Each structure stands twice: as structure tokens, then as C-alpha cells.
Amino acid sequence: MAKRMILMILAMTVLLAAIGFVKFRQIQAATSQSGSFQPPPEAVTTLVAKEEAWEQTIGSIGTVSAVQGVMVSADLPGIVSEITFDSGRKVHAGEVLVRLDTRQEVAQLVAAEAQRDLDNLNLERTRGLLSQGITAQADYDQAAAKAKQSEARVGELRATIDRKVIRAPFSGVLGIRQVNLGQYLSGGDPVVPLQSLDPIHVDFGIPQEKLDQMRTAHEVRVESGSDLAFHAKGKITAINSVVDAATRNVQVQATLANPQAHLQPGMFVRVLVLLPSTQTVIALPASAVRYAPYGNSVFIVEDLKGPKGEAYRGVRQQFVKLGDGRGDQIAILSGVKAGEEVVTSGVFKLRNGAAVLVNNEIQPSNNPAPKPEDS
């Protein structure tokens, strides 16, 4: 019985060893085949790099502000008797907006004018008596002072009546009316906002290390809208003399023409300051760059050699230093030389040394100033 068990164990051992040997040879054959396997080339588009002269710019985020903007307010207290404007209308400097009730002041003015006329008559009589030596100089001086007081009282009442007529201090566009007929206004109560929109200011900040590049009269380009479709140009008109201690930025103000009122106070805009110098860069489509935390790179197409020495068209991953973007393009400051063939689409599926098949029938967009199709 024991002998039979031993024979069975030996037989099972031999069988398992034979199976193991067969599997080992199968795995060894599969490994040798995979080692010689070459994946098919990836289809990509390419572009031959060339140098371009780009304007040097400094980008920032700005806020639109009115050259002149106020909340038109009541100067003196009174009841609103007339409103002569509509919300959102353009007005000219000096145009009447609101009249307050001045019936009491008008009545006081009539009485003051009557007293002034009487005092002037008394002054003339006293002057005649003084010339005849009938009255004293003191009586004449008293009559002259009283006439001047009456004239001053008339001027005061006229000024009060005029101050109860609220006028536009400058030409501009009105906002939403904030008063109603019959409403009592105290001194300083708001009536309507007024903004001068043409020209208009854009305020933005630049880092302190770029302050030496800022000059008044430098041209700026402003873009606004959901797709930055609106463009306007202006010039720097003021540079603040103080650096913000919290942000280390310097406030800069540009002035732009705004005849169609596309820019409104408080709007967010993108600002590009155009510097007078230019910079030589390699301009590539933004799709050519593989962005990564450890560094940005592009793939350059070259003639490579495989493990067995066979030649093929493949790619070399090259890390680059990026500059500013412009439309569909991005500036390559270093890492790519003019004349090198750079992959412009399909970079996400490539690796260093991968074989590629170039097909340039359809190229990615490479426009420095693209326009949206629905604009």
C-alpha cells in the first residue's frame, strides 16, 4: 500500500514538472515576441518652427472708471416741484434736472427788491442833502450802508432760488432717477448718478519690478466681453507714485476714447500695455505644448534609430520656456530652434522616442487674432 502511494506521488510530481516546463517555454516565447513588438506610429500634425518678432507686452486686469462721475445731490432742502429728465438720458453741462419749490423765496425776493429800491431812493435824497450841507456825513454813510445791505439781501435770495434748481455739473449719461414729485429733499440727498463716458479711464496694477518699463503715452489695448471680442486702444495718462504695500503693485491709469459707450464704469477688462521694443520668439499653436507641473514640453520630429538599429521617424520630448500667448499662438522663448519640425496636435498620446506618422491635411488653428464664429 505504501509502495503504491509513493509511485502515485512520483507520477504526479513528474506530471506537474512537465506542465510547468511547457508553460515556462510558452511564457518565454511570448516575452521574446513582446520584446520585438513595435507599436504602430501615431498620427500627428506638425509645423516647421520659425522666428517671429513679437511686440513686448505687459498684461493685467483692469477696472473701468469714469473720467468724471458724481451722484447729483440736492444742495438745499426743499420739495420737488418739477423733474425734467428721464433715467439713462444724455445731458449737457448746465441742463436743468430738478426744480425745488421756491414760492417762499420768490415772495421774500419781491419784498427784498422793494426794500432795496426804497433804500436806494433814501440814499439819493441823503446825497442831495449832503451836497447842500443840510445833513451830516454820518447820516449819508448810514444810508449808503443800508442800501448795500438791501442789495446783498436781494443777491442772497436770488442765489438761494438758483441753488434750488438742480443742474447737470458736466455733460454725461444719467443713471436711474432716485427722486419723485412732491418728495422732500434734505441737503445732500441723492437725485441721480451722472457719468462722463467719453473719454473713459481704465485703472490697473502692474508688479513693482516692471515699473521701470512704464511710461506715460505708452499705448494700451483693452479687451472686454465674455469672449474678449471688444477691443479698444488708448494711452497711459498717469502712473501712481506709491507702491501698494499689500500687493506690491503700482496703479496705472489709461485713457481711452469711448464714443459708443461700450465701456461702462465698474466693468472688468483685460489690459495689454504695448512696449516700444520687440522680442524674437518661436510662435507655435498652443495645442503643441504639453503642460505639466514639472515642466512644459513639446515634441520635435526627428530621424531616430530603434533597438536593432533600424531608422524611423519619431519624436524627441523637449522642455521649453513659455512666453505670452496671443490668440491661438503661444511664444516659445527657449527650447526650440528655427527650422525644427514640431508636433502641433496629438501630443497627449506621445512619449519620448515614439514613432509618428505626419498628416498635415488638417492643421490646428494658429491665428494670432482669431475671431469667434458667432461674433
Q: Would you write up a description of this structure?
A:
- This protein has four domains: 42-54 and 279-358, conserved putative lor/sdh protein from methanococcus maripaludis s2 fold (Beta Barrel), CATH 2.40.420; 59-66 and 195-277, Elongation Factor Tu (Ef-tu), domain 3; 77-100 and 164-188, OB fold (Dihydrolipoamide Acetyltransferase, E2P), CATH 2.40.50; 102-163, Helix hairpin bin (Helix Hairpins, Orthogonal Bundle).
- The longest helix has 34 residues, at 2-35.
- The chain has helices at residues 2-35, 103-131, 137-163, and strands at residues 42-48, 51-73, 78-83, 90-91, 96-100, 165-167, 172-174, 184-185, 190-207, 219-224, 230-243, 249-256, 268-285, 297-305, 311-319, 321-326, 329-334, 341-345, 356-358.
- It has three helices and 19 strands.
- The strands form four sheets. Strands 2-9-12-11-10-13 form a six-stranded antiparallel barrel. It has a four-stranded antiparallel sheet with strand order 6-5-3-8.
- It is elongated and about 165 Å long.
- Helix content is 24%, strand content 41%.
- The protein has 375 residues and is of the alpha+beta class.
